[in-house]
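User: Okay, second chain of the day. Same drill as before: sequence in, structure tokens out.
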Amino acid sequence: MATGGIQPAASGGETRDAIIPPEPVTIRTLRRLRERGERFACLTCYDATTARWLERGGVPVLLVGDTAAEVVLGFKRTIDMPLEVLVALTAGVKRGAPRTLVMADMPFLSYTADDAEGVRNAGRFMTEGLADVVKVEADASQAGLVERMTRAGVPVCAHVGSRPQQAGLSGGYGAAGQTADAGARIVADAEALERAGAVLLLVEAVPDEVAAEVVARAQVPVIGIGAGPACHGQVLVLQDLLGMTDAAPRFAEPVAQLGVATQKAAAEWVRRVSAGRIGGRPYAMAPAESEKFRNQMAQRAE
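Assistant: Same drill. Structure tokens below.
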């Protein structure tokens, strides 16, 4: 499999068919995969428990995305993601999947108002949030910010193409690079941000030929989402993959229907409780203690 030496778990508390990395996944790991022409998977994740299972499943990269605003907090826009919450979620994911490369999304206005503030907030994701990489939505005009973060020791993934944090400018989410000029600008953005020090590129919702050109020119691993098959890595929002969103984007093909399964499980629990059969194994007193307890309760009732 294309996960750079990830092997089945040998023993212990892992599930028998678990696939876990024998050593931590790093930027160096992803570079080796790129050099060997091996594709790697990435998924969003927002909590330690899910992170643990995704690591066991062999996913080498987890993105703690600002999509948590929508799928965790219930907002309708990613720009409503609070910085403090996302830092905490990132740390939880890393604690749940310590051998996985964890990438943190920098939320709306946490890095664009002022470069110095952006570097400080990126540093918080690295220290408090335990992140391995931070992701910023950027274009060529923000190469200076990426350069400052890099000089400070922060590994940056530069997100180009469709940038959800900019959706308000066009009235909603949508594809990017659908004209020759727009596609050329995205390629130029990717080149400028890589030159500024970005260790990864992420390209979203662009035509296949645009993503393929980014990949052809890049010297770093490129992760795609809705950007065709040419990218070295592919990421999806976990809830889209698991069939837990009511309207998944056109590029997301679910592999399970956990939304329906969860609904059925909830309905079954409602039925069990109504019928008075909650299942499981009850706690019990030793016979002598049980008798003593009954006697005490009887005395109190007199």
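The first strand starts at residue 7 and ends at 8.

User: Thanks, on to the next one.
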